[in-house]
Write a structure and sequence with these properties.
The chain is mostly helical. It is 47% helix and 8% strand. The longest helix has 29 residues. The chain starts with 10 loop residues before the first helix and ends with a strand. This is 1-acyl-sn-glycerol-3-phosphate acyltransferase.
Length: 78
């Protein structure tokens, strides 16, 4: 998954980017840029948790509505 840390609109990510934690130096790290490694890991974990939470909520809503998609994408009514 490719994303820019400043485009992640989760409170955890926004809070991390507000902190004065940018690495000082002449060159950015190839993977972490100007952020410390732990900051990237925290943002990545927040994204995973958010996706999991939304997926679970969507699954629960579909179960309440009695709708399940077949493997070819057409909804099945129960």
């Amino acid at each position: 998954m490719w994303y820019c840390a400043c485009d992640v609109k989760l409170p955890v990510a926004e809070e991390i980017l507000k902190r004065p934690i940018f690495v000082l130096g002449e060159k950015a790290h190839p993977q972490n840029g100007w952020l410390p490694p732990k900051a990237i890991d925290q943002i990545r974990e927040a994204i995973k948790q958010d996706v999991s939470k939304i997926t679970k909520r969507m699954d629960e809503e579909e179960m309440k509505e009695g709708i399940e998609e077949a493997w070819w994408g057409e909804p099945l009514k129960f």
